[in-house]
Amino acid sequence: MRGAGHNSPHRLNPTVKSDCVANGFITLPKFGKVKLIQHRPIPDGFKIKTCSVTKKADGYYVTLSLEDKTVPTIKPDFNPDSITGIDVGLKEFLTTSDNEVTAIPQYYRKSQKRLRVIQKRVSRRKKGSIGRQKATKQLGRQHKKVADKRKDFHFKTANNLLKKHDVVAIEDLNVKGLARTRLAKSILDAGWSSFLSILTNKAENAGLLVVPVKASGTSQDCSSCGVKVPKKLHIRWHDCPHCGCSLDRDHNAAINIKNRAEGHPVLKAQRLRTAIAGLVEKPPL
Ligand SMILES: [Zn+2]
Asked: Of 1, 47, 51, 159, which has the fewest beta carbons less than 10 angstroms from its beta carbon?
């Protein structure tokens, strides 16, 4: 037996603890505590799984592989038919195509109010005064509290969706012109875009899929017959005069989002793969 790999003196795979990286140091067996230049931070909710140390001309390199502990099961062969669409609402945080609603949590609105109160306190007090310094500190703490709560809510909501579905269709919100609308403000308030990045990361780590689809017209088109049924923002119900379809506005939009994702090439490929596997598994006649 010869060659590189595990026996190479230039490469080691020590067993490390999940908390081996802290404050710019890494703790390795035999080496002990070593100073570390970290190129990327370890994201929240992830644990260090394996570690490899490589010797290069300009020093030692440590490569860490991470594991997301918060997603319970990994499905390498996702089911393309286990799919839901989600719609961002002005009223609710999200509505799925199965008409499951996730409300914007009450505490979030409350802490937003408190944030405004402290913000006023800061601007009322004289610049440079101790009173203003105190209020500024208070404001910083409140901001962190709001951010923490929101993140926690986003993680829980993403987990709930991925527990039930293998594929989640979303509106592609990277659209020009959206910034001017009322919907854009609601998206900012609810932190929709940071939620989507958490959802996408979690899905990727679990071998599942998030599919962004074209956003235009999802609330106007009828999810049953496809004809456009124009309605203003305050109209909360979709009543189709062409086919008689009648359902909640956001529910209708979520079904459209789901339908638009159905033709995604990854889903088609997965269906084909499942079909071929099914053929192979059939006993010969
Ligand atoms: Zn219709």
From this structure: 1
d(CA 224, ligand 1 centre) in Å = 5
DSSP character at residue 228: B
Give me ligand 1 centre to Cα 215, in Å: 19
pLDDT band at residue 188 using 50, 70 and 90 as cut-offs: low
CA of 53 to the centre of ligand 1 (A): 61
Q: Residue 251 and residue 85: Cα distance in Å, rounded?
A: 9
For residue 65, how many other CB atoms are within 10 A of its CB? 10
For the stretch 5-40, pLDDT in tens is 444 567 788 888 888 888 888 888 888 888 888 877
Distance 184 CA to ligand 1 centre (A): 27
* CA atoms of 219 and 89, how far apart (whole Å): 10
Decide if 33 contacts 25 (C-beta within 8 A). yes
Give distance in angstroms: CA of 239 to centre of ligand 1. 8
Does pTM top 0.70 for this prediction? no
Ligand 1 centroid from CA 116, angstroms: 44
* pLDDT tens, residue by residue, 142-182: 988 888 888 899 999 999 999 999 999 998 876 545 555 55
Residue type, 73: T
